[in-house]
Write a structure and sequence with these properties.
single chain; 8-stranded parallel sheet
């Protein structure tokens, strides 16, 4: 079995064809997926999905590039995280690609998510784009190692990977690893300790080869795992087993409730 540790099944491109998306997941032996929250306004839609389908799980948070959403308080995030289908806080972090002015409100929001994660006792799902030094700085300042979690869609160097691994975080690899010129990510995917590695699609974005440029979906996480197996010189079954075990170790709440 595989697990897609990061997808957006509530986005319209996927919900419009949800029965087929879920059927293909099953055909590709993707037994579980985390549906990631990006704002509070759409959070009920994610909860509805996860309450309907036992093998889907939710996170709650406000994405760093979202500038027009309601700002969550620590207390509100903690309260929402008590729902039995919510396994993590996020997607949170920093994104300076879309906000090149590097706004302070992003950093304040990230701090609040870290604090909520620690208080709620649930891991973080961290997004980083062009903000590595500030991501690491705020993680250290706020004691993010007390919460743990994932650096999702990891695209940084091995040196950065080592830094977040030292803080107890997991690294999640997306379909970018299948791209021909993604040499930095390929190196990281080949070197991360197997017991700290996760796989994801970030669907509907970042479809892996052979679907690059097309709509992504959780079933395609198998191509991520296949590429990692090739890079590491191990079997696909080993990667599938390890990344699935890692997901349930990080999110034990999901393992206790996911149908076998």
């Amino acid at each position: 079995m595989l697990v897609d540790s990061h997808c957006h099944l509530d986005f319209r491109d996927l919900t419009e064809n949800l029965p087929k998306v879920l059927e293909l997941m099953q055909s590709n032996e993707v037994g579980c997926a985390a549906c990631i929250g990006v704002n509070l306004e759409d959070f009920p839609r994610i909860l509805s999905l996860t309450e309907t389908y036992p093998h889907l799980w939710a996170t709650v948070g406000v994405h760093p590039e979202v500038s027009d959403a309601r700002e969550p308080t620590v207390a509100e995030l903690v309260q929402l995280a008590q729902h039995p289908k919510v396994i993590a806080i996020g997607e949170t972090g920093l994104d300076y690609y879309w906000h090149k002015d590097q706004p302070e409100w992003q950093r304040d929001r990230f701090r609040n998510h870290i604090r909520a994660s620690i208080e709620a006792g649930k891991p973080l799902v961290i997004h980083n784009r062009d903000a590595t030094s500030d991501i690491l700085k705020l993680m250290c300042e706020e004691g993010a190692e007390r919460a743990g979690g994932i650096l999702h869609c990891f695209t940084e160097t091995w040196a950065v990977a080592e830094a977040v691994l030292e803080m107890g975080f997991y690294i999640s690899i997306s379909g970018i690893v299948t791209f021909k010129n993604a040499l930095t990510i390929k190196e990281v995917a080949s070197r991360v300790p197997l017991d700290r590695l996760l796989v994801e699609t970030d669907s509907p974005y970042l479809a892996p080869v052979p679907y690059r440029g097309k709509l992504n979906q959780p079933a395609y996480v198998k191509y991520v795992a296949e590429e990692i197996a090739f890079l590491r010189g191990i079997s696909f079954a080993e990667v599938a087993a390890a990344t699935t075990d890692n997901f349930f170790r990080l999110f034990p709440q999901a393992e206790s409730r996911t149908p076998q």
